[in-house]
UniProtKB/TrEMBL annotation:
Keywords: Membrane, Metal-binding, Transmembrane, Transmembrane helix, Zinc
Compartments in which it is found: Membrane
GO molecular function annotation: metal ion binding; signaling receptor activity
Transcription in keyword set: no
Record carries keyword Transmembrane: yes
Example GO biological process: intracellular zinc ion homeostasis
Superkingdom per UniProt: Eukaryota
UniProt-annotated binding residues for Zn(2+): H131, H277, H281
Topology term for the membrane: Multi-pass membrane protein
Species this chain originates from: Kluyveromyces dobzhanskii CBS 2104
GO cellular component: membrane
Name by which UniProt lists this protein: WGS project CCBQ000000000 data, contig 00015
Residue stretches spanning the membrane: 110-130, 150-168, 175-194, 206-230, 242-259, 279-301
InterPro entries: AdipoR/HlyIII-related
Length: 315
């Protein structure tokens, strides 16, 4: 065998090994993988063709991927940054701004703002963890997907209950009844979300519909408020304008998620930036900001009896 033949032979073996490596050896290195190079359990959205982290089999490997730009990066950071922001608000907002502004606030009155912030931190935080750690292995992905679904249910529950409080703060029976109803619905949703089938690919549109339906249960107390207080006051009690924007963002995000728009129209074109899950994440954050604005407005309305626009809480 000549030297040239040996080199050629080596090159051919090396090429064969290279082509096998991505499929056979799990690792978290810099190489990103294509959809058809992934193990079956990782194949979720066939319209996103490239940019995958293949199963890492290590938490460290997953955490290392935070420093790499891949097709989950925007999903992770669109929820991680708001998680930290809401956490800062949760720790300091009530004590630093709201209580000094309205010293006659009851514990419940300002705790309800923190209640929503806690829901937002849990939801967005669980989502960030899920998107970061789901590439560990099938079992980890399975567990974290349930954590992610639970986070969404917690945020919807906290959002509705905080709105109920400011809407019915002086009609405690209504507040209690609707709160119990929301907790019952949240519990039913949890039972569904923990079922193994809920996480399957074919259930994607159903999942989207499922959360929208739970969120829309908030219509019942709003209609009750209209009947009880009249349109003018009901609108101001819950700051309906922001609640409607919130619903629009959540429903719009869920529809985009369910139909996998826009990657379904151009597979492979939105792998890193602009695919449906990223848009869904951004719309969830926008929806949560609307809710936060609504409850702050409700809180001010509760104390001043009139709507004050803007976030300025100091005299
Ligand atoms: Zn997500």
């Amino acid at each position: 065998m000549s030297a040239t033949t040996t080199i050629r032979h080596r090159k051919s073996i090396s090429a064969k090994l290279d082509s096998l490596t991505p499929v056979e050896i799990p690792r978290s290195g810099k190489r990103l993988y294509k959809y058809n190079e992934l193990p079956e359990w990782q194949q979720d959205n066939d319209k996103i063709i490239s940019g995958y982290i293949r199963e890492t089999k290590s938490v460290k490997g997953c955490l290392k991927s935070l420093l790499q730009f891949h097709n989950e990066s925007i999903n992770i950071y669109t929820h991680l940054v708001p998680t930290v922001t809401y956490l800062v608000l949760l720790v300091g907002l009530s004590d630093m701004f709201l209580v000094p502004r309205f010293p006659n606030s009851t514990v419940m009155q300002y705790l309800m703002i923190n209640f929503f912030l806690l829901g937002a931190v849990l939801c967005l935080g669980c989502s960030s963890f899920f998107h970061c750690l789901k590439q560990h292995s099938e079992s980890h992905s399975h567990i974290w997907s349930k954590v992610d679904y639970m986070g969404i249910i917690i945020m919807i529950t906290c959002s509705i209950i905080s709105m109920l409080y400011y809407g019915f703060h002086d009609h405690y029976l209504h507040f209690k009844c609707f709160t119990v109803l929301t907790i019952v619905l949240g519990t039913i949703c949890t039972v569904f979300a923990l079922h193994d089938k809920f996480n399957s690919k074919t259930f994607r549109p159903f999942r989207a519909m499922f959360y929208v339906t739970f969120g829309l249960s908030g219509i019942v107390p709003i209609v009750t408020g209209f009947w009880k207080f009249g349109a003018y006051e009901a609108v101001r009690r819950v700051q309906l304008k922001y609640v409607l924007f919130e619903a629009l963002f959540y429903i719009g995000g869920a529809v985009i998620y369910g139909f996998r728009f826009p990657e379904v129209l151009a597979p492979g074109k939105f792998d890193f930036i602009g695919h449906s899950h990223q848009i869904f994440h951004i719309m969830v954050v926008l929806g949560s900001i609307c809710h936060f604005r609504a409850i702050i407005g409700s809180y001010i309305f509760m104390h001043t009896g009139m709507h004050q626009s803007g976030f300025v809480l100091v005299r």
